[in-house]
Amino acid sequence: MSTTDECSRVEYVADPAAAMSWLAGSDRFGEYVMYERAGEWTFAADPIGSVELDATELRVLWEGTSTADAWAGRPARVLDRALAALPLAGRHAYGWIGFEFCAWALGMSDHVDPRTTLAHVMIPRIEVRVGAFGVRVRGATPTETGDIHDLIAQSQTVEPPKPHPVDVRADSTGYRNRVAEAVAEINAGRYQKVILSRRVDLAHPVNIPATYRLGRAHNTPARSFLLRLGGLEAAGFSPELVVSVDEERMVTTEPLAGTRAFGLGDAVDRAARAELITDPKEIVEHAISVYTAFGEIAEVAERGTAAVSDFMAVRERGSVQHLASTVRGRLAADRSSWDALERLFPSVTASGIPKREGVDSVFRLDAARGLYSGAVVRVSEAGAMEATLVLRSIFQDAEGAWLRAGAGVVGQSRPEREFEETCEKLGSVAPYVVRA
């Protein structure tokens, strides 16, 4: 078995998203998590170990041996300890964290169904990296390595799949009424902001890898992902980080709040941008999100290192454009990456302000979210971490497939406009769905 990166026979991959989709769709390598960041795509597959956490039990699997134990305390620390106990030998861990993971840190665990999966992280046997360097394979047998190169070469000659666009205008969830209820609670002084979402169920099974390929060609995400893990499939085009902690212990988050449609033509897009940067409701929504993110980073960073940059820049993410800022600080010596994740999770742009009251409103007014508005994570043995926000995504399990999108609700919100915003966001994925 190979234990180091092998140089590629393929010097250049013109369409890395097609390569990742083709590897995933080949069904050759078991469960997988694909993660795109900074011009590099990683396909991590065939787990040799995993850590799965639900509301009552921690399950650890390593090379065929499994344990299951009750747990207590904070989920982030439980996961940190479980991963630290495994002989990773330089391997990364990949997986996902559900929205309900936040309930323990916020003292709201009684809101969570005991059967809810909070996190599922796996350690792959095989890693395939694609970037400007070509293709590098780690952990595969020589035969598998040859097959991987052949599959990637084949992927570059296959025509893109045909989409079956989804109608997102119907609403079976009473979204406008829920927004109106939240506006009333905000104006009564219960909280300042909440993100409410709606689910759109699909009438047919979906080819998730093919949907990823087609959707990635029409999106401009900060990160993207594709996964099949623990009975859940998902693909998404994440507009922002929840948190990253790099090798130099720099903590970063990128709150996006304030939205208008994008991709409707230059003149329309410019008019929407001008409206976005001058709309008092959008500016207030963004400013309070940045203020909250700054305070959260300050709590885990060395004193005086928290700072905001690119304040209220406009970033284009597929079918929408957002107001965006970056908040950074250097992680304090007595804090870990998991401490930073726990403090910043869930993203303020996917929960509410104040966060505890916002999450309480989500638990009351939204259905259980699972992976939606949670995070896909990549963690190094040394503790570096990226957790990307799960929005602009499609999901599928044994019961069916669905899309989901939300909008930020503040005192000035109008239910019809917030519904329209969910349609704009669903437009990042709905036109590119591929039937199984």
From TrEMBL:
Entry keyword Metal-binding: yes
Domain (Chorismate-utilising enzyme C-terminal) ranges: 173-425
Keywords for this protein: Lyase, Magnesium, Metal-binding
Protein's recorded name: Mycobactin biosynthesis salicylate synthase MbtI
Listed cofactors: Mg(2+)
Domain of life: Bacteria
UniProt key word Metal-binding: yes
InterPro entries associated with the record: ADC_synthase, Anth_synth_I-like, Chorismate_C, Salicylate_synthase
Pfam short name (any one): Chorismate_bind
